[in-house]
Design goal:
With 934 residues, the chain is mainly alpha-helical. The protein is built from 45 helices and seven strands. It has a five-stranded parallel beta sheet, sandwiched between helices. A two-stranded antiparallel sheet has the order 6-7. Strand 6 and strand 7 form a beta hairpin. Helix 11 crosses helix 14, helix 22 runs parallel beside helix 24 and helix 30 runs parallel beside helix 32. The chain is elongated, with a radius of gyration of 38 Å.
Length: 934
């Protein structure tokens, strides 16, 4: 039994709120649903009451309080709603209480706010009855003991990137239902969905606003409706006759609530509209001088919302629109508040861009992120007013934020519009001119990160000249750091080092700690490319020290990442992995997706070195996704190059060429020399693998030309010459091949990269073998054999190195040939087992020439091994290792137990496999038991 009003539409959404409020009513006697006008309190209360009606013996009684002019009318109105006749000496209130004492029912008191603060009758009902519960709706709490407040916000909203799934969100469903009333054929489609989503976000899911907006589809498109909402709050109105007059427009609702505020509350509320994205207590105090009591009152009356997790206040977007209109009615006050807001947040930025040790840079960046909407608003206002000092003081913090959060596109847009506004205000020059060049320098650095290297270089050169003319030493340091990185990316190490050396000296002299840490890291990147690992490590450790001193987690992650690269280049793979994983954690902590992407790139390259190709592809593909999100097209293209490079070593030549050809095309169009160079080298290696030696030579010669024209780094040249030598061998041009390979060996030795000599030496051994100089070939191979004990022997080209060693040893009838072949075959099988994709596993073993040759040779060798007892007895060491294998110990465990290297364990394991004529541990243990060895 109930008197709930009939509703003209289906109830949409709020299933969680519906369940929670229903549960509260069962345990609490007074629940008040609060929220701003039009949010949907009444509709939700009616739905809750309808659901609970069967649970109350005497049903539900609904009463809308909108018609009541006075709290004195509440008693008689409830009697009428309950259909209880009234006559006699009792007052309506006394009669009501007497009638309710023995009842078990739910009273729904809708729109209580205009009767406040008089709540005596509600209090008496709760005190004098046992079975009556009350569900109230109000824009502010009733403030009674035992009252449970349930505040509601807007309906669920779709995100910006949602597709058709956006139609399932509550706000979209209500908008569509409202549109159906005036246009039954209306539906969402690819043309109107984005605009409909924008309507929902503009009103933040407010139910009444969505109903009012939906009523306009009979005359306007969704695009036009969203534009009208942005333009004026008055657009959201209707002429429904079955709605109370104050529910026919949002302005009418808000005017009713506004009239209930005192003058101080009205003043503060309209001034709070200056904030964007919410605000905290300190900001409201500094800008509007709002007292805690006024904020609490506005919160209680649903003019403000409070987020306990973020500890911030906020205004509903539509209420903010209304407050802005109110503030605009007093232009002088509006200008004063805007100035205070601008001053507060520009100072806020300045304090977080000073690089002070008292405020961790990472913490400062997080605080900026929270206030970003306010900061944008303040910055744009300062630009429009020509507030040069505010902008100058706060530019560094904003630039660092854009750089760290991978928001360079937004940063470029904001700085460009600021430059344009400043240049339009001639009265503030030359002070404004100096600032515009500082902004241009920071914009140039962001352009560089987005791959626009030439644009960045031109702008930085001009800005450096301006800084030097004005003797602005800190600004000159910034420009030199940027130019140094640009020169390094153009493979011009000489000028890069010169620029960075000057920048470092100046930064140290001026006490610019942040710039010094950056300078050390940039310098390390340059000398790392030259192969000067010790010097690179020295500078990176100094950079890391400064980052940790300044609690700069962002640049700490970058320094750790680069230290990982140094370790990988020196063959210290375990240490490299530790550094890179620490870097990833640091970048993830602060939301630096570009930094995380770079670290994943390094992790992928390390995985290639360790022949974990599936892991490498996963890392590169994750890098690709992050760099796309960051808008870093050059890094995105670099990730594609690494993916193509990895497919070469998996033997998937078709996919490899597709990726690498795309990278070559893009890098040439964009003028990205290092990427063009890398793509050429990778294509050269691919062509060698496929036996297309002429094309391979062409790609490598083109790479060498880039190196010569751009001031080649020697380590790069050595790698290219090695690949070229292999292409020349394939064409039978042995003398030319020998010359370029000898040059590669010389370069490696000169720059201290002896550990990277293997490929060049193996190719020289192949030349001698072809010439029939077997003894000379053996002499060269003797230098390679000790490396077989290393787990990372040969890097990605390990197969061809094994094959060369085997061929030379076989040619001179050296018994070690069989051992090398067994090691090679087993290593290939171990690596193949780690490749998840069956097709890639097959191409790895069959398509790569050296791998195919090893597997075939091993198969032929297996056919000639006698099937009777052991041809050669096990040594004591092999017997001990066999016993430990049977006990389940890993190679590393066995090495630690016997105090030998893992590589030595592998050699002994391969030897006993050969003697037992088995291929793996399981077979070895089983056959040894058959023979009685275990």
């Amino acid at each position: 039994m109930h008197n709930l009003p009939s509703l003209h539409s289906n109830f949409i959404g709020r299933q969680e709120e519906l369940s929670n409020i229903s549960a509260l009513i069962e345990s609490k006697r007074l629940v008040t649903i609060t929220g701003i006008g039009g949010i949907g309190k009444s509709r939700l209360a009616i739905q809750v009451a309808s659901r609970l009606s069967p649970h109350f013996q005497d049903g539900v009684c609904y009463l809308s309080l909108i018609p009541l002019d006075s709290p004195d009318m509440l008693g008689s109105s409830l009697l009428n709603a309950l259909s209880i006749p009234f006559a006699g000496q009792e007052t309506p209130k006394e009669h009501l209480l007497n009638m309710l004492r023995d009842r078990e029912m739910l009273l729904v008191l809708d729109n209580f706010e205009h009767l406040l603060p008089d709540t005596d009758l509600v209090a008496d009902i709760l005190q004098q009855t046992d079975g009556v519960s009350i569900l109230a709706t109000s824009r502010e709490k009733l403030n009674l003991k035992g009252e449970v407040i349930f505040s509601i916000g807007g309906l669920s909203l779709p995100g910006d990137s949602e597709g058709e799934i956006a139609d399932t969100y509550d706000a979209m469903q209500l908008l569509r239902q409202s549109a159906h009333r005036v246009c039954p054929d209306f539906s969402f489609n690819d043309q109107n969905r984005k605009a409909a989503m924008r309507i929902c976000r503009l009103v933040d899911g407010m139910a009444l606003a969505l109903e009012l907006a939906g009523a306009w589809v009979r005359a306007l498109s969704c695009d036009e409706i969203s534009a009208e909402i942005e333009s004026s709050l008055d657009f959201l109105s209707a002429t429904w006759t079955d709605q109370s007059e104050r529910h026919r427009s949002l302005r009418a609702i808000f005017e009713h609530s506004w009239a209930m505020l005192d003058s101080e509350e009205q003043q503060v509320f309209q001034q709070l509209s200056v904030f964007s994205g919410g605000f905290d207590r300190e900001a409201s105090r500094q800008v509007t001088q709002a007292s805690t009591s006024v904020l609490a009152s506005l919160l209680d009356r649903s003019f403000l919302a409070w987020d306990p997790i973020r500890e911030r206040y906020d205004l509903h977007p539509v209420l903010k629109h209304y407050a802005e209109d109110k503030l605009a009615e007093d232009p002088e006050n509006a200008a004063r508040i805007r100035n205070l807001h601008c001053s507060y947040f520009c100072t806020f930025l300045k304090e977080r861009g000073s690089g002070s040790e008292k405020k961790a840079i990472s913490q400062a960046l997080r605080e900026i992120d929270v206030e970003l909407a306010n900061i944008y608003s303040a910055w744009q206002y300062a630009a429009s007013k020509g507030e040069v000092d505010y902008l100058d003081d706060s530019k560094n913090a904003l630039y660092r934020f854009f750089a760290t959060r991978s928001r360079d596109v937004k940063g470029i847009s904001l700085f460009s519009s600021t430059i344009e506004k400043l240049e339009s205000r001639q009265e503030i020059f030359p002070r404004g001119e100096r600032l515009t060049h500082k902004l241009r320098a920071r914009r140039a650095s962001m352009l560089y990160r987005l791959g626009r290297v030439n644009d960045a270089e031109q702008e930085l050169l001009i800005c450096l000249q301006v800084a030097q003319r004005s003797t602005d030493r800190p600004e000159a340091v910034f420009c030199r750091l940027g130019l140094g990185l640009v020169r390094a990316s153009q493979v011009d190490s000489s000028e890069a080092k010169q620029l960075l050396n000057v920048a470092l000296d100046e930064a140290i002299d001026l006490g610019l700690q942040w710039e010094e840490s950056i300078g050390h890291r940039y310098f390390a990147i340059v000398v790392l490319l030259e192969g000067s690992y010790a010097l690179a490590q020295e500078h990176l450790e100094r950079s890391l020290q400064l980052c940790r001193k300044g609690r700069d987690r962002c640049n700490e992650g970058s320094a750790l990442r680069n230290l990982g690269v140094v370790a990988r280049c020196q063959g210290a793979t375990k240490k490299a992995k530790e550094y890179i994983e620490q870097a990833i954690i640091a970048h993830q902590e602060i939301g630096d997706i570009r930094g995380e992407g770079c670290a994943l790139s390094d992790l992928g390259l390390l995985a290639v070195t360790l022949r974990r190709y599936t892991r490498a592809l996963e890392a590169f593909e994750r890098e690709l996704m992050l760099m796309h999100r960051a808008g870093d097209r050059r890094a995105e293209t670099s990730a594609l190059e690494y993916i193509g490079f990895t497919y070469t070593w998996l033997g998937d030549y078709e996919r490899s060429r597709e990726y690498l050809s795309h990278v070559l095309k893009v890098s040439r169009v964009r003028g990205w020399l290092p990427l063009e160079h890398d793509a050429l080298c990778s294509l050269g290696k691919l062509m060698v693998q496929q036996g297309n030696y002429g094309e391979a030579e062409g790609f490598n010669q083109a790479a060498l030309e880039i190196e010569c024209n751009s001031g080649s780094l020697q380590s790069m040249r050595a790698s290219t010459l090695t690949s070229l030598g292999e292409a020349l061998i394939g064409q039978g041009r042995l003398k030319e091949a020998e010359t370029v390979l000898q040059e590669a060996v010389t370069i490696r030795k000169e720059i201290g990269q002896e550990h990277l000599l293997s490929s060049a030496l193996a190719n020289l051994a192949s030349i001698e073998l072809i010439r029939g100089n077997n003894d000379e070939a053996l002499r060269i191979v003797e230098h390679l054999l000790p490396e077989i004990e290393d787990e990372e022997f040969g890097g990605e080209e390990f197969g061809s190195l094994y094959w060369v060693c085997y061929q030379v040893l076989k040619a001179v009838d050296d018994p070690r040939a069989e051992t090398v072949l067994r090691i090679a075959q087993n290593t290939l099988q171990l690596v193949a087992a780690l490749i998840d994709d069956e097709d890639l596993r097959s191409s790895f073993l069959e398509n790569i020439p050296s791998h195919h040759a090893i597997m075939q040779a091993y198969g032929r060798q297996e056919q000639h091994i006698p099937s009777t007892a052991l041809a050669e007895p096990l040594t004591p060491q092999e017997t001990e290792i066999l016993r430990l294998i049977a006990d389940g110990l890993t190679n590393r465990d066995i090495a630690e137990r016997l105090v030998i290297t893992v590589g030595t364990v592998k050699i002994h394991t391969h030897n006993l496999y050969g003697k037992l004529r088995v291929k793996n541990r399981t077979q070895a243990v089983a056959h040894a038991r058959e023979l009685g060895f275990l």
